[in-house]
Amino acid sequence: MKYEWRKQEKELYIPKAKPTEVTVPKQQFYTITGKGDPNNEHFSEEIAALYAMAYGIRMMPKRGVIPEGYFEYTVYPLEGIWTMSDEAIAEGRAFNKADLVYKIMIRQPEFVTEELALQNLAEISEKKPNPNNNNIKFETIEDGKCLQMLHVGPYDDEVKTFEIMTSYCEEHKLKKRRLDHREIYLSDPRKSAPEKMKTVLRYFLEE
Fold it and tell me: Which residues form the GyrI-like small molecule binding domain (predicted)?
């Protein structure tokens, strides 16, 4: 039976449209770090590079390779950790997408070892050249204690959901341990109306 993260990991990926506290364990990802406006073509090329690697792992059996512990699964969604550049923060500049700093990523199943991830990276880079492949890393990340909430609507309206989350933190005496935040993209903006797009927004909290 295929592993479906939407069903097996609802607590992490399908939260309600209200603030919810959650503890996120260690997870492993293909990642790319970058900066600048995500509406530019370069960002789209970075996403394409990540998806090529993610589907490379998923389709390994069709290439005659069955990794130890392999199981059928649905490829995980694109995620991103976002903040502003140090210069923008230090100068107190008004929000400008050009000042964004990000790490975008796609989670990989537990059977994926570093050796397997790097092997797949080399094989897919040869078959599907992309200049961003050189910037892809395989990393283990632990979000730990977090506050998350489902945002429904355009990305540019996320500030409304963040305001609700910030009020919840103040009311429950919770403190963010970092300035950045995580976003998990449950909808494909190419196929979904802006008002129907679903995104998980997550703050990193102090223990």
Answer: 18-199
